[in-house]
Amino acid sequence: MAKETQETKPLRINRIVPNDMRSVFANHFVIRHLSGGFYLYFFEMEPPLILGDEPDEMELDRIDAYCVAKIAVTQETMGSMIAAMAENFAKKQQKEASSNKANDTTEKDRPSASSPKKNAVKGGKHAG
Questions:
Q1: Measuring CA to CA, which residue among 41, 46, 85 is closest to residue 65?
Q2: Are 40 and 29 in contact (CB under 8 A)?
Q3: How far apart are CA 51 and CA 36, in angstroms?
Q4: pLDDT tens string 81-103
């Protein structure tokens, strides 16, 4: 009796983000690791609303951080996320560095308001 072998065919993932999915802002996070995986907690911290200039109002002993998302992932997924984030972060930094370098070059080539401009018109005649 011959054994049948099954070929595994990779499936494409069709990522669907619903139109009504809400984006949330997170400026603080906590990562907990437990057996079997990680829990990622994302929080939004807002500065307190201080209306007056009284010193009592400016003394804070805490700031509230509201959890806006909690995500559980496996160790394997966490490793993939870290690698993907590091790669994307590096690409963004390179792109920004290139953009800043191009802006610096453009700024150097642009005459300043105090420097004389070539072919500026004085008294109806071209200055040389």
A1: 46
A2: yes
A3: 47
A4: 999 999 999 999 999 998 888 77
Residue 114 lies in a domain: no
User: DSSP characters for 9-43?
Assistant: -PPPP-----TTPPP---SEEEEEEETTEEEEEEE
Could you give the number of structural domains in the chain?
Answer: 2
Q: Which domain holds residue 36?
A: 24-47+63-73
Q: How far apart are CA 97 and CA 8, in angstroms?
A: 43
Residue 84 located in a structural domain: yes
For residue 105, the one-letter residue type is T
34 and 68 within one domain: yes
User: pTM higher than 0.70, yes or no?
Assistant: no
Same domain? For 69 and 34 the reply is yes
